[in-house]
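Ticket #4471: complex job returned nothing on first submit. Input attached below:
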Amino acid sequence: MNALNGIRVLDLTRVLAGPFSAQILSDLGAEVIKIEQPGKGDDARQMGPFQQGESMYYMANNRNKKGITLNLKSKEGKKIFLDLVKESDIVIENYRPGTMEKLELGYDVLKIVNPAIIYGSVSGFGHTGRYSKRPGYDIIAQAMSGIMSTTGWPQTGPTRTGTPLGDVLGGLWCAIGILAAIQAREKTGRGQKVDIALIDAAVATMANITMIYLTEGRLPQLIGNRYESTYPYDSFTCSDGQCVIGVANNKLWAKFCQVICRDELIDTERFRNVPDRVTNYAELKDIVEEWTSKHTREETVQLLLQAGVPAAPIYTIDQVVDDPHIAQDREMFFTQRHPKAGTITLTGSPLKLSDTPVTLDQPAPTLGQHTEEILHHLLGFNAEEIMKLKKQNVI
Amino acid sequence: MNALNGIRVLDLTRVLAGPFSAQILSDLGAEVIKIEQPGKGDDARQMGPFQQGESMYYMANNRNKKGITLNLKSKEGKKIFLDLVKESDIVIENYRPGTMEKLELGYDVLKIVNPAIIYGSVSGFGHTGRYSKRPGYDIIAQAMSGIMSTTGWPQTGPTRTGTPLGDVLGGLWCAIGILAAIQAREKTGRGQKVDIALIDAAVATMANITMIYLTEGRLPQLIGNRYESTYPYDSFTCSDGQCVIGVANNKLWAKFCQVICRDELIDTERFRNVPDRVTNYAELKDIVEEWTSKHTREETVQLLLQAGVPAAPIYTIDQVVDDPHIAQDREMFFTQRHPKAGTITLTGSPLKLSDTPVTLDQPAPTLGQHTEEILHHLLGFNAEEIMKLKKQNVI
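Support reply: We reran it on our side without changes. The output follows.
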């Protein structure tokens, strides 16, 4: 059994933030029906990388979903959608605010058809407020939330995080909002609207950085890989790569000095306490790298871990994929058979639930793969009616 | 009414990932009882910035919680904890794996006392696997997940994201896992263990980047602020600051060329289609900055937005806090009265739920603020017994 068995989701989302959010629900066992435009589908189907002509970008965010096509601009398509809403628990969309209303399928319409429906939306700036109608992309959320202004180096300026972080955070918060709404409905019997903005989602991750400004009026600066609050807590160059070391307190500092055979540093005044080490970080970085540069990254990390000092390699993506703890023990990579792409490797779920584990066995749907099944079983259409809808380009 | 009213959480977490996760539940209306070590409390109470001597770091991650002190190493403390477990729905902790077992308070013990208890854990590497016992900090998750290796510039190397992203992601996934477990329990009546690793949480955010390697065998590189898949989609320098522009497709490219009065570029072969613009991004960056450098950031963004081209300023934290859409319309900053710190400003919640909105009115507890209330009302201790527990350093 999965945690969300018995929950049905209509997934109107495209590209990343929305599909990622709905996929969290499908991994947890919800029946997610992805609704795509006939003939074209989710834009992500055109986005690389491709395997046997099938988009891996799409497959990475739409596993465990069923896929149907439906033209929401047609009268018949709208009617079918509203009939599906009657049979469902959740609708999730990531159109620009106003689009669903223009289709006459906004939350106000859906809740009349099904008062228990939970309506989850992800948009750049949210469904309320003065910037609501602005187009919102991942890079815009990273820029306006302050994340970029605190990521990077003085010599390079504000830096975008390499993963589409704004989209990912929006998707995670939307999943949280929807799950909370499911719980609320257990008591009230009513659905509700969950309105997630990429920009809000990103701002909320900056909380303890933002506190520095809100309390002291001091602007967090670009400081590369070190932390403001302790040192050595930074990246360091080894003979064959880079590692990070996390000496968070005096106890770890003493252990660290012993590992590098520099016991005399433990009580050196310039480095004695955390604030001293933070102040003299540049000198300390040279001392640490004098040691790390004589060892391989693997040796460095192992020597430190054996002494109880937190340390890790800075992995490139191939090293992440090959790491036995990540890939095998924690099952963060797994393979599926896809009818067109063949055997594919995907990233697993970090949700490790002991009683109702996630199930990751169904590949993403081909365009319209389950249209007939859903229309027949859920709404009772027969083969002739389905043929007619196809001819009319409704499905 | 809030979404999680009637749910009681015992929060044993410290510093960031765990407290942030439990705060999501408290914002949603769960009764979260934070359990801290007598006399000392959560380490975050010693972390700056401070207002009137009170840690804002702590207050930013522990609002809406009640706070009690309890010595889990004492026999009496363990007994009280187990009695609280009987009266609760959720336990959440972020100790290093094995610590709760050493206290004889692991999930195996708690589920005997209360089979419906949901046990949420956040740790660096998770409760299973070969690295399970390694110390895990935010920087270690950022390093080993590949996030650092794809963030930054060729000349600076792998770059840490400015916010403690590993902790934040771990906290978000833990909240999702716990909410899913609540839903599962509605059907099974049983609780379960939710085992979230910072490293898994971070790996899961890299999915579409990781696909590039898994499909093409090509390693994602450090490419600064541009994207691999389209251009101009990057940061650009204006006369008084930096902005980002998101020209994601040909339609936006035509609009963009019109705004900068360079219509002839639309059909220039070197820039005609997305792959052409990606290939010739360096030349294009100069062309874009020839225009942006003549305008202020505000002018640049407004001119582009008026033409329907996605654009945004790269905000510093003060600008985020002062933005009227973010701060006022979306209520992402708000004030509270704290008994010791006075009026404080905190970051709001991105969870905008129409029927059961979050409530953010209670400040974080002072150390042991609700010990007597909880012991009396929940477990029936009288004043004399509470006095005795204090003398014995149990509370």
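The first strand of chain B starts at residue 8 and ends at 11. Closing as resolved unless it happens again.
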